Amino acid sequence: MQYMILIYSDPTSEPAYGTKEFDAMMGGYFMLNERMKADGVLKAGEALQGIETATSVRQRGGKVETMDGPFAETKEHLGGYYLIDVPDLDTALKYAALVPAVAYGTVEVRPLMNYNPMDN
Questions:
Q1: How many Å apart are CA 27 and CA 87, to the nearest integer?
Q2: How far is the CA of 53 from the CAs of 66, 74, 97, in angstroms?
Q3: Do 98 and 45 form a contact (C-beta atoms < 8 A)?
Q4: What residue ranges do the domains of the chain occupy?
Q5: How far is CA 104 from CA 12, 41, 101, in A?
Q6: How far apart are CA 54 and CA 71, in angstroms?
Q7: What CATH class has 2-114?
Q8: How confident is the chain (120 residues) per 10-residue block, as mean pLDDT?
Q9: From CA 51, how far away is CA 58, in angstroms rounded?
């Protein structure tokens, strides 16, 4: 089953770029990437650019509207993701617990919908 691991954090709470703590955090991400590759579960994953680069789109009254920035105002922002393919939620949670952001943010695990029952 495929799961998204969504990584949320408050940018002010994560280690500052150029510090030893930042290097250690990034080392944790690199090690997690290599472990998931070696385990054969990693399908995709990447960090996202900052919320200042975001554009939100919605349709209201038949008119498409675009807005700069994320739609929801929150301290924690979606900063990246992993797409993994594992047997069950417990296994997905084990990988999510290895994401360095669990120390200062929130890591959400969510199964993907499968609209093609032939793939089961």
A1: 27
A2: 13, 16, 28
A3: no
A4: 2-114
A5: 10, 25, 5
A6: 9
A7: alpha beta
A8: 94 91 96 98 94 87 86 77 97 97 94 79
A9: 17
